[in-house]
Amino acid sequence: MKRKILFIFGLLLSSFIVLSLSINGHAQATYELELNEDDSFIWEVEEVRPRNFEKVFGFEPAFEVGDETQKKVVDVIDTSYGWSVVLEEWDYNSNFQGNGTIRSDVIYSEPEDYEDNVFIPTPANDYLTEAAQVLPSEYIIEGLRVTKRFSNYDMILEYNAQGIKILEQYVDDDGIILVSIEATFNIIPLGNYFMGFIIVGVLAIVYAVLKHNKIKIR
Is residue 217 within 8 Å of 210, Cβ to Cβ? Predict the structure, then answer.
């Protein structure tokens, strides 16, 4: 009897989690920006070919493999067009020492106004899907991957589900990667809500194990 009760409890918990996720997804009528004050992000140069880079861009790259750049969110300001994101950023070779440079990024809430920013609104996949319908022909969008064609190279940006750039690549006409910059951070989906679900789930499992083994908690 106790096992049946625990099974039903676990089933109800799972249903609640699925339902909550479903409601959260469908209730979102407008696009949002999943950024908070003090969020910090680091990207690292994973690959670079200096000679090919200079041939295409006309100057040597100011970074090498292993160099990192960092951006920290200072403030997120709601505006009529979307958001103004105030950032403190550290360039390559700075070792993140001292204060960074303060600048602002404009993030538009309407997909038709998409720009090649570090951050885009969420749901990111829906945002880019809508953007693909109105962007110029030099853009190719596949899921969370954006390719923009220039005269002699392609720029490739890839975002995660939270609308944060996780990959930036430049590729020449021969398909040679000139530089590849990748994120070194991990984002927990749904933030605190996801952690809450995990905690509840773990507590339920612990409760079930204790009950099953008839262990008394003192």
Answer: yes
Q: How far is CA 22 from CA 15, 28, 123, 193, 198, in A?
A: 10, 10, 13, 13, 17
Residue 179 near residue 157, CB atoms below 8 Å:
no
Would you kindly state where each structural domain of the chain is located, as residue ranges?
40-183
Show the beta-strand stretches assigned E in 7-136. Answer: 40-48, 68-78, 82-90, 101-108
Give the SS3 label for residue 106: strand
Q: What is the CATH number of domain 40-183?
A: 2.40.128
**Residue 154 burial by CB count (10 A; 0-12/13-18/19+): exposed, middle or buried?**
middle
Would you say residue 5 has pLDDT above 60? no
Q: Could you read off the pLDDT of 135-160 as tens digits, one per residue?
A: 999 999 999 999 999 999 999 999 99
Model confidence pLDDT, tens digit, residues 104-125: 999 999 999 999 999 999 999 9
The pTM of this model reads: 0.72
